[in-house]
Amino acid sequence: MNKTLRYSALALAFVVVLGGCSEKAALDSAQQSGATPPLPQARHFLLPPMQVPKGVGWGQDQAPKVAAGLKIEKIASGLKHPRQLYVLPNDDVLVVEANGPGTAPVTTPKALIAGLIMARSGKSAKGGNRITLLRKSSAGGEWDKHVLLEHLNSPFGVQVIGDALYVANTDAIVKFPFHVGDTRITAPGVQFADLPDTINHH
């Protein structure tokens, strides 16, 4: 297949994908829950219709609505693709800022299209490859931010055990010396276990 045909086929695939994403749900929110929600008939699609939410931050003087008896407040901004939260015993909060390593080759049309669809929801945002520590500010408002660890490799899970912080990078679990209350780790980490990172990077 020459380049012109390849590009034409790719363009057609994009049109089909975008057309599928544009179809809206036919049921209102009240019909989408309960003991007997109406179910649509089975249908065949080349690609199923999808509604991909657009990733956006809080607007000026805006906040998500929460259930009665709860409240919500903005404690941090400017984070680079926050992926995981971990609350420490002293109420400090660790925020893992990471995305996929971006090293997987795109070898199939399916992978290419999936990447484009996920990007619409903010999945393609650049990760910080770091862990930020948030500590409640005595002045109120957003919490104080401290870069606890940086130059990591697409981290995800974190766990404090004893006097150590374990960080699951995409290719290894790394152990760092850490005491609750610390705001910066400068000591090098020690590999605790390697991880298979050739599939899904987890």
Strand content: 15-25%
- The number of domains is 1
Order of helices and strands: HEEHEEEEEE
Question: Biggest sheet, strands in spatial order?
Answer: 1-2-3-4
The radius of gyration computed from the alpha-carbon positions, rounded to a whole number of angstroms, is: 22 Å
Give the N-to-C terminal Cα separation: 35 Å
Structural commentary:
The chain has 202 residues and is of the alpha+beta class. The chain is built from two helices and eight strands. It has one domain (3-22, 73-194). 15% of the residues lie in helices and 21% in strands. The longest helix has 20 residues, at 3-22.
Task: Give a concise summary.
This protein is of the alpha+beta class and 202 residues long.
Write the layout of secondary structure elements.
Blueprint: H1 3-22, E1 82-87, E2 93-97, H2 109-119, E3 130-135, E4 144-149, E5 158-161, E6 164-168, E7 172-177, E8 190-194
Antiparallel strand pairs: 1-2, 2-3, 3-4, 5-6, 6-7, 7-8
